[in-house]
């Protein structure tokens, strides 16, 4: 029911903005590139006859009228921001598949009972500004607007100022009404590809706990300071990185444990590091297991700090529990995939998505498509055009069934 | 023979430039603060009747005429630049003790046969620009002027441009003649303090090997990427940091093994690191043992890379072999210390100093004084005023004996 070539062409057009050397995209949230991507998206939505609204956290909602326009909209969407060395599909695919659904509704002259909207959520990646999923988190009351506007980027910029600078500090209130929410996304992992499935029917997302750890030792000269007298913050922190890895390797089920950022102070070749800052990201589909990973992580950090004669402080940075999606809507996704004869399987999302926060407010479901080698958050991220078309088709069917005739 | 209070006051005055929150100094090489420190030093030298020359790498030589001014000068000196969170004595003590010797020669109307000079060497620390000991390395032919002028700082500045900007791109040629070289310095380690010795008679410096290691894994999403499929560059690099520490702990004698810088790419909380860069600094007084440390370090990095399915490249960055000082001059330092009745011991320098490079060209010796808790390259670095005065007195005696009457 959709035009796969048009979808593919739009993906290619968007990928030109912030294109990186190795074929990926860099559109960090509220950067010049993110603004250019948003502007292109808005121009496409207006060309498709939609009315565009920006809310106070910079989320974009492009609306196609419903037969009863007083009803709350069925919203489809995802994000246009990327990681620093991100890919061409993470987020973008969900936004442009949703736009393709609207274009196809137009082509076929399909009227829906509920209005239909395409949403672009602000800063899903959580890379330039952290935590992730800010736009959807503000709309669903997980964060206050004020705390998020005051977030400061790694580069020193304030989020509220960047919204104004890029022209996306909108006027609309942040309690956007929604009837249901659908998000298409690349899997970002290897399961569908390995099992040869065309569609992932996402039953929910695994829980996440993010931390910030600060290790404090004693700076001293790398030459005349005997090994036995050192309190090297990096030696301790590197043992902690190993411990985080072990927490991941030694947990049953599908655990994840990652250190993505590690900063050394004073950052000089001949100074024993006096302070190290690093981030930790623990994930598991099961809440009890995630709590157990949390305990083992904390115990390991404390023991390593003690052994190395250094201080270690763990700060909770962000978390959400394992989050199931709405069963009736998930069933509808499975039926749509089956109806087209696409091979499919139920799957738990390893990543957080705006859908996770929205699921706390309205019935929500997600559709996954395979990505090459399961790689994402990498410039080489790739999909097969036919997989993109299949995902958009399932989104179309699920949308029409949910928005009503 | 010297004025300990005047020396102490000058140290305190200099420490006001680039003073840090915790009582240390930050005068990174060729920064605004380094320029201000140099300017103050030059004004003091001129007030003491010296003629000041700047060479093309920015080294400062303040000259007090000799009875036979055609003879090459006996040079005393050290450096005024510091680490990012450096102390008030590392380098500065040697420069201002030398200035105190000149002031005392003036007070007493002592004439020397050879002219006497105080040298300030450019960028000894090797922190902002690396490697260390650049000014003395250019003068002694270890580095070419051209390669050093083209060095680029962590902050992106070019060394040659910073010389011009700060007004220290001098005209004098870089093959400065010297009859002998004497450098007073804080020990930067705990030995003198622990043993209750007032003066360290430095017989030479241990050898150093510096490396840069780049670990290459595969960036991927921290959520949906199973632990077993990861090629996490930081997990591998942290095992390498542990291995470097073991090389240090498991070597006999007085080994040092340090990782001072470690940078993670792409530096995002939810991306498995795809690349890690880190620096390694290995030291030992014995050349064969240092070569053995080098072998064990390389083997450990290769084995860890293999185990973790990542790439690892080791680049040699800088090195110098264990370097003995000139026996007759070292004997003179020992005699001067003994003559004053100061307790002393022979000691090998754990740090590199400009004296190491100068020792390759002219007879060289160093005088160490104790520093509190053996701590340096740290804002809390401290000395007892009486130790400073003793070091300057030994420098005075050795200088007079070397420069002749
Ligand atoms: N899809 C995605 O990368 N979301 C950001 C939050 C997470 O790391 O799971
Ligand atoms: N004294 C000093 O810090 N010199 C720099 C070279 C080294 O790290 O040994």
Automatic annotation (TrEMBL), chains A, B:
InterPro entries: Amidase_Cbmase (IPR010158), Bact_exopeptidase_dim_dom (IPR036264), Peptidase_M20 (IPR002933), Peptidase_M20_dimer (IPR011650). CDD domains: M20_bAS. One of its GO terms (molecular function) is hydrolase activity. Residues 204-307 form the Peptidase M20 dimerisation domain. Keywords: Hydrolase. It comes from the Bacteria. Gene3D superfamilies: 3.30.70.360, Zn peptidases. It holds the Pfam family Peptidase_M20. Belongs to the peptidase M20 family. This is Zn-dependent hydrolase. It comes from Azospirillum endophyticum.
